[in-house]
Design a protein that fits this description.
Length: 342
């Protein structure tokens, strides 16, 4: 008998997905803002939401971060942090023109896709970028090679793609898509473009794939799946879709436990719980408390992968932290020398 099939003592149980919540890129981006606030003091400007989560953004705002939409809103010469979703090269140029001190918190796995776009554009490929129109990550990646990139927003778009040379075309993707839907889109593209090349390595990141995989495991046993995450979080929204596709009778996205409607739980014996890659785990714990108050006291964690990846902080920030540490050491040495000379 699997953990997911274990019988609850109360008749009401929770299957808690693992991995869930923060990925390495989100962890790094949030830490970047926190460390910048410690190092330089408030306010610190952040272009776009650092990660797509309401709670994270409002917590950082309380600590002194100011979120803006564009570089023009940042005072000349100030520090600006670019979000985990990445930016187009023109955004770096704008920052330079305003003498902004930019700290780039783009997730290294998004940067990898940017590098692929640059490389294939330099080799004069047509690039079919599978992703959601208007999403910041897609705007940033397309901005690397606008003359070479065409957006393919889902399987239906595959039928209308036009390329210059069907033997010189590659697909890349946004990192937070549905794995299954992307495979379907690629299959449809390949029916029309048999020579279509695949990215050198998966663009959909490990965190997106892992969170979808565990949801697929638990969903068939769930009457309802609660996904903690914000509506503008692509990977969180995908988890709701994956849960439904995998057999959950219902699935809902909530930012906070208080948004859970008791009607969703009526008649439910098994509730699945997971969270998107930009969600701190205390929000999930609040959901478990909320469910426990309604009789769902037996919680079984279902684990399908062990994640250990972490990323170093952006080098601009590390340089600033090192300079500050050196200054402190010099001041301490000067104080010690003065004291010794007394
Ligand atoms: S979801 Fe993936 S690509 Fe996006 S920040 Fe997390 S690790 Fe990076």
């Amino acid at each position: 008998m699997t953990e997911a099939q274990a019988t609850s003592r109360t008749g009401k149980r929770v299957l808690l997905a693992k991995p869930r919540g923060y990925c390495a890129g989100v962890d790094r981006a949030v830490q970047t803002v926190e460390e910048a606030l410690k190092l330089y003091g408030a306010p610190i400007y952040v272009r776009k939401q650092i990660v797509h989560n309401k709670h994270v953004v409002s917590t950082l705002e309380r600590q002194g971060a100011i979120f803006v939409e564009e570089n023009e809103e940042v005072p000349e010469g100030a520090i600006v942090i670019f979000s985990a979703h990445g930016v187009a090269p023109e955004v770096y140029d704008q920052a330079r023109n305003r003498s902004l001190r930019a700290i780039d918190a783009t997730c290294p796995l998004v940067t990898k896709v940017h590098q692929e776009a640059r490389r294939f554009a330099a080799e004069d490929y047509d690039i079919l970028l599978i992703g959601h129109e208007g999403h910041e990550e897609v705007i940033g990646t397309a901005g690397e090679a606008p003359a070479h990139v065409q957006l393919v927003d889902g399987p239906e778009d595959a039928d209308t793609v036009v390329v210059r040379d069907p033997e010189k075309v590659v697909w890349l993707s946004q990192t937070t898509l549905s794995v299954d839907e992307t495979l379907e889109t690629v299959a449809r593209l390949k029916r029309r473009l048999p020579m279509l090349q695949s990215p050198p390595s998966d663009d959909i990141c490990y965190a997106t794939s892992n969170r979808q995989h565990v949801v697929k495991e638990i969903a068939p046993d769930c009457d309802v799946v609660i996904v903690v995450g914000s509506r503008n979080s692509s990977n969180s929204v995908r988890l709701v879709e994956v849960a439904l596709d995998a057999g959950a009778r219902a699935a809902h996205l909530v930012d906070y436990a208080a948004e859970i409607d008791d009607a969703w739980l009526t008649g439910a014996a098994t509730v699945g719980v997971t969270s998107g890659a930009s969600v701190p785990d205390d929000l999930v714990m609040q959901v478990l408390d909320h469910l426990a108050e309604r009789g769902f006291t037996d919680v079984a964690e279902v684990t399908t992968a062990d994640e250990r990846l972490s990323f170093a902080l952006p080098r601009e920030l590390k340089r600033g932290m090192k300079e500050a540490a050196d200054r402190r050491a010099q001041e301490a040495a000067a104080l010690a020398a003065t004291a010794a000379g007394r």
